[in-house]
Amino acid sequence: MALAGSAAAVWALPAPAAHVPVLASALGIARRAQVGPGEVALTFDDGPHPDGTPAVLEALARANATATFFVVGEQVRRHPGVLEEVVAAGHRLAVHGDRHVCQLRRGPAALAGDLDRCSALVHELQDGPVTHWRAPYGVFSPAGLALGSRRGWTPLLWSQWGRDWQRRATPAGIARRAGAATTAGDVLLL
Predict the structure, then answer these.
(1) Rounded CA gap, 190 and 187, in Å?
(2) Each residue of 40-56: pLDDT tens digit?
(3) Dihedral angle sign, alpha carbons of residues 83, 126, 145, 161
(4) Are residues 62 and 36 in contact, defined by beta-carbon separation less than 8 angstroms?
């Protein structure tokens, strides 16, 4: 029984890294980005989606800003034209997974297949290799971290979060949360 508990604890060890910066750092999971002076990194998860993504692209174009889109493979297959618009607008793509499933619920072989399917789609659509990835919900597993490392990917979380998925979220509230006390190099998650 103690061995099973120990194994479960090791398997779940990286899970709280999104909320425990010192753990993220110890595990080599980035929460900040290499950007220009005074700049932050805008990141978007879970798409593309035909309703939300075009609106985001319009807002980014108005602001003359670029972002990184952490995409879900099954969404890419459903809406390939939307993702082509993302790439055509000069934004970067990164891997979120083929399906939006918590890594702790997947064994290493299933997770490897999931990451391979998504990265193949990303590689097909953008010039250059995949460099970054983010686990669904920001919950990495030891297997996920090892698989990403073998692929040469940098695991990336966030340092600021708009929580735009909340039911009562408003544009002003999202901007306030995501932009509160930002400094150069912050990674904003939307």
Answers:
(1) 10
(2) 999 999 999 998 999 99
(3) negative
(4) no
